[in-house]
Design a protein that fits this description.
This protein has about 250 residues and is mainly α. It is built from twelve helices and three strands, in the order ααβαβαβαααααααα. One of its GO terms (molecular function) is DNA-binding transcription factor activity.
Length: about 250
């Protein structure tokens, strides 16, 4: 919640805190510091503020692949069509004119959050789908696409660690953890394993490689650990999975 008017900021924080964890900032500069630290899923920001206005904040969010998927709601007393257009050009997802109904805004945010949670489940479902079809990402999900490419580049490296992953993503381990929790509800380690298993599913259905060879090619040093991880996700052994695919 980014709002320089203290009374309105505290009122909205109090109202929304019954449903969400709310972090507040008084201007765009403070907000970017909080966004970098906490990686919120939704940002509600006033437009006219000292030390960093809402339009600039919105552009900074949308121009950064780490933050681009954050849903941005701009609140403003500027009500002309041109002002609204400027808000959307800056990347705002919703432009709300003051005065506004706080209950209506809260319900909008609740609906947005529910939609984001559904998308999170859909993404994870597609990632672990037995069909292993190519996933169509929203342009705002560039971070996830980039993550998958890095993991695929290190697929055979069983020693690929979170430190190295975070470094290649140009972020910290803490931020990486929060980001994956936000995007797919997994830790970075779980996500790496998901991508390894996704590739294994593809190889089981398209190659004559042995289970041991597939395990090695997807970064599992030991076949029994590969089989254990595979069973946890697909509720079957790789051997049985392949046989069913061939039927």
């Amino acid at each position: 919640m980014v709002e320089d008017h203290e009374e309105l900021r505290e009122y909205l924080k109090s109202k929304f805190s019954a449903y969400f964890t709310v972090i507040t900032a008084t201007n765009g500069t403070e907000a970017m510091e909080a966004i970098t630290r906490y990686l919120p899923e939704i940002v509600v920001s006033d437009v006219m503020m000292p030390h960093g206005d809402g339009l600039t904040l919105c552009q900074q969010i949308k121009d950064n692949s780490l933050f681009a998927d954050i849903f941005v709601i701009l609140l403003t007393a500027k009500s002309s069509t041109d002002d609204e257009l400027q808000g959307y050009k800056a990347g705002a997802d919703i432009y709300v004119k003051k005065p506004f109904d706080s209950d209506a805004l809260l319900n909008q945010i609740i609906n947005i959050n529910q939609t984001r949670q559904k998308r999170k489940s859909q993404l994870l479902g597609k990632l672990i789908s037995p069909d292993s079809k190519e996933i169509e990402f929203d342009p705002k999900e560039h971070f996830l696409q980039q993550s998958m490419k890095i993991i695929e580049d290190h697929l055979m490296d069983a020693d690929f660690k979170i430190d190295e992953f975070a470094a290649e993503m140009n972020t910290s381990k803490t931020v990486l953890h929060r980001k994956f929790r936000s995007l797919v509800g997994q830790t970075p380690n779980q996500f790496i394993r998901t991508i390894r298993l996704r590739k294994a599913v593809h190889l089981l259905g398209t190659s004559d490689l042995t289970i041991a060879e597939i395990a090695y090619l997807t970064g599992f040093n030991q076949s029994h650990y590969f089989i254990k991880c595979f069973r946890e996700v697909y509720h079957d052994t790789p051997k049985n999975f392949r046989q069913k695919k061939q039927e």
